[in-house]
Amino acid sequence: MIERVALYLQDAHDLRDGLDYVKYAEDRGFEAVWQAESRLVRDAIVPMAAYAAVTDNIQVGSGVINNWTRNIGLLAATFLTLDDLAPDRIICGIGAWWDPLAKNVGIIRESPLTAMEETVVVLRRLLNMERVSFDGDFIHVNGIELDVVHGRREPRNVPIYIGATGPKMLQLTGRIADGVVLNYCVPPEYNEKAIDELKKGLKEAGRNFDDLDRPQLVVCSVDEDGDKAIDTSRELLTQYLAQQPHIAKASGVSMDVVKEIQSILGWPATHEQIQKAKYLVPDDLVHRITASGTPDEAKAKVQQYIDNGATCPILYPVGGNVKVLIDTFATK
Fold first, then answer.
1. For residue 61, which of 107, 95, 96, 109 has the smallest C-alpha distance?
2. CB of 90 closer than 8 Å to CB of 52
3. How far apart are CA 314 and CA 244, in angstroms?
4. Distance (Å, rounded) from C-alpha 132 to C-alpha 144?
5. How far apart are alpha carbons 53 and 95 in whole angstroms?
6. What CATH architecture does domain 6-221+295-329 belong to?
7. Domain boundary assignment for the chain
8. pTM above 0.70?
9. How far is CA 185 from each of CA 174, 286, 288, 290, rounded to the nearest angstrom?
10. DSSP code of 225?
11. For position 284, what pLDDT does the model report?
12. Residue pLDDT, tens place only, 8-60
């Protein structure tokens, strides 16, 4: 049996339904829920607060926010606030974002490694309730601290996980983060190279492999009709391979296929465009980079990611009944 399991929610459901899914997942033994923040759709913070307010034990993570659009002081205050709502249950998942979206909203992502390191270092110090002065390439703060007058003054237990895909960001993650959120839409064997890079960073920092938690986002479509489940995942892949080139590169998909899909999809992609382009995504690719099919097939595929180094699958339910997916992977 898969011992650790988490739920990932994005925007394919009514937000109030998401509260029911999270409560149900908590009752069925899921250890965490992660809220997406990727496309220009739902932000992560508002749903996270809602999930935290209606649950008692499940951890609540951002899966993942970016390190460019929130001032470091606001970022620290945001996670302080979430920790006030659900003490010791909040996880800050943060990533370097991606183009073309960042560029299209006016963010120039220069030196993403330096920007990420500065963010993690200063955020951790602020959540440790330190008074911080820092003059870096991206963050410049002078004698700031979290100004708690009414409430808990003690350091906050908010672990920081980096959503890392490329080798250098993985090395940085091994060096400075509490955990890594391994990417989705990749084959299980992707983890072998990713873990090699994580170990380089861990070694540089004098840390052990078990010091770094390694949950992994996994696209999961479960249906007793396996073909239906596969077709549902195909629609998601069509959109993400076109709009998130870093994922397409990590997945090993032919760039010719990606370019052909991109020629059909606009930004944002319409349902009609996705339906037109989805036939360019073959069945074998869906099987290779997602956990899609019958409940037994989906569980077997998720186990492959665990066998390749992931510590906890973060299941991204695509279509269908979310509670069926939760029941499929329930630990109690």
1. 95
2. yes
3. 19
4. 5
5. 25
6. Alpha-Beta Barrel (3.20)
7. 6-221+295-329
8. yes
9. 22, 9, 9, 6
10. S
11. 87
12. 999 888 999 999 999 999 999 999 999 999 888 999 999 999 999 999 999 99
